[in-house]
Amino acid sequence: MIVPLVVLLLAPVLAEAAAAWANRNWRTARVLEAATWFEVARRVEPRDWRYHWYAGQFWFAQALQGRKPDAAARADAAFADAQRADPGEVRALIARIACQRELAALLPVPADPTTLRRWMAQAVAMAPLSADVRLEELRVLRFVGAAAEARSAAARMLNVFPNLPEARERWIRTLLEERG
């Protein structure tokens, strides 16, 4: 009776420690060690979306930096696991959408435009007032070739979010000025 209770109580602590150690290794460029400890955290607490998300961020960065298809596939799988762990967490969904958009050329089977738009609509429904969600929506619209729709959404964003950070506002204004 005591042993299962101790294991139940220690699992979150162990997962957090593994993730912290992975992050430390990542910051010091010990990539193999970081990958190992991110995976340990995921396995210790598979029902906690955050550990999948942390691993996904790690693999996403590795894929972007090295243009590695294996890292891209691992990032997408980790973000998909994060979604399954907590379907109501919009950050997991947005991360998967960004992964599919940014790493499409590296993924064995990238999401098609219809799927990306469906996922994006789901994210907007989950967090309609999130500037991060709305910015990703603009990126997806541009990615799938809906430039006019992206410009229209960008114009609405400037009215809905008047206090955006300067860099984001500049990006949106650039999008509005684009033609094509």
Give a written overview of the molecule.
- The structure is a single chain.
- With about 180 residues, the chain is mainly alpha-helical.
- The protein has helices spanning about 1-25, 30-45, 50-65, 70-85, 90-100, 115-125, 130-145, 145-160, 165-175.
- It is elongated.
Secondary structure layout:
Blueprint: H1 2-27, H2 31-44, H3 49-66, H4 69-85, H5 90-102, H6 113-126, H7 131-143, H8 147-160, H9 166-177
Rg over CA atoms, rounded to whole Å, is 18 Å
Low-confidence region ranges: none
| Class based on secondary structure composition and strand pairing | mainly alpha
What's the shape? elongated
Strand tally, please? 0
Mean pLDDT: 89
Oligomer: single chain
Helix-residue proportion: over 70%
End-to-end Cα distance: 66 Å
N to C succession of SSEs: HHHHHHHHH
Please state roughly what percent of the residues sit in beta strands, choosing from under 5%, 5-15%, 15-25%, 25-35%, 35-45% or over 45%.
under 5%
Q: How would you characterize the largest beta sheet?
A: none
**Discrete helix count:** 9
Offer a quick outline of the entry:
The protein has helices spanning 2-27, 31-44, 49-66, 69-85, 90-102, 113-126, 131-143, 147-160, 166-177. It has 180 residues and is an all-alpha fold.
